[in-house]
Amino acid sequence: MKAAVFYGPNQLLKIEEVKTPAPERGEILVKVAACGVCHTDLHYIDHGVPTFKKPPMILGHECSGTVAQLGEGVDSFKKGDKVLLPAVLTCGVCDFCRTGRENICEKMVMFGNHVDGAYAEYVIAPAKDVFTLPDEIPLEEGSIIADAISTPFHAVKNRGEVRPGDTVVVFGCGGIGVNIVQVAAAAGGTVIAVDISEAKLEWARKLGATHTVNPSKVEKLGKEIKKLTGGGADVAFEAIGKPETIQSAFGTLRKGGRLVVVGYSAEDIKLSAARIMFFEMEVVGSLGCRPVDYPRLIEMVRVGKIKVAELVTHKLPLSEINEALDMLRRGDESVLRSVVVP
After folding, report:
1. Where are the domains of the chain?
2. Homologous superfamily of the 2-147+289-341 domain (CATH)
3. Residue 81 C-beta-side C-alpha neighbours within 13 Å
4. pLDDT digits (tens, 9 = 90+) for 185-242
5. Whole-Å CA distances, 97 to 13, 93, 146, 195, 250
6. How far apart (Å, rounded) are the C-alpha atoms in residues 107 and 187?
7. What is the third-level CATH fold of 152-285?
8. Of 234, 238, 283, 292, which residue is most buried, by most CB within 10 angstroms?
9. Running DSSP on this structure, what letter comes out for residue 157?
């Protein structure tokens, strides 16, 4: 099979012929329909964040496809079934899994990090972790559910605990942030989107933001948000991963507000301990999505409460994976979400 192979930081992925894997007991071989192109991959390629599996390996963790072959003992699928692979696999037996925190499983395995991922024609997956995609969800565009939709869903529903009527501010309207906007709006929140890109703010408006703010066009961002919310937001999401925007997001909250950090940063941040204590503020992190949430999320996509097809603005062949990554690096405003189609 053809695959885009990662050999180490600061190198292009190489399109090569590699051996097609064979499913072992309890596994399925999936013919990849599409794999989303994610900033996480740039952390490995550009920023030197190590993968658990040492290179060479195959990246890609946002995958949909069809069942090509069944391993021994698998009777929950048949060849040709349309499936979605979650970005992270869980053990199901550690303390975190047994108490409903599967997304921070002690033995978690991530495609394109711990094991070979889906920038390839085929990928192996444990059958127990795979979800069926209904016919109403387009197979290629549906791939982004695995991360670009599921991560925001967990952030909004489980970590942000957004309720109908809550005021919500979202910092960063890229592939993750703009979906925090649409999931928060679907949950009944009144959403304010913050970004320096007018194109991304336009997407946020299309997906449910009632107000948008460009920080470069206002004198004091915190003051502007508090004016729009009548004193501050109930919940703020940071989906960029910069200390300064995490601090800015915290500064937009009302008393008793909750900050949800979704963006990744290796740097420390500085927040007022006095304000956290005296005003009973909450600061929480959010990682991935629990397996138990996928069926509800897939159903919301199926009935149109959450959009996916509109978000995939670019489809590229596997041979153009490096160009897809370059578009992500450049912050190309014409790109909301790209997928590679082997």
Report:
1. 2-147+289-341, 152-285
2. Medium-chain alcohol dehydrogenases, catalytic domain (3.90.180.10)
3. 19
4. 999 999 999 999 999 999 999 999 999 999 999 999 999 999 999 999 999 999 999 9
5. 34, 6, 19, 35, 30
6. 31
7. Rossmann fold (3.40.50)
8. 238
9. I
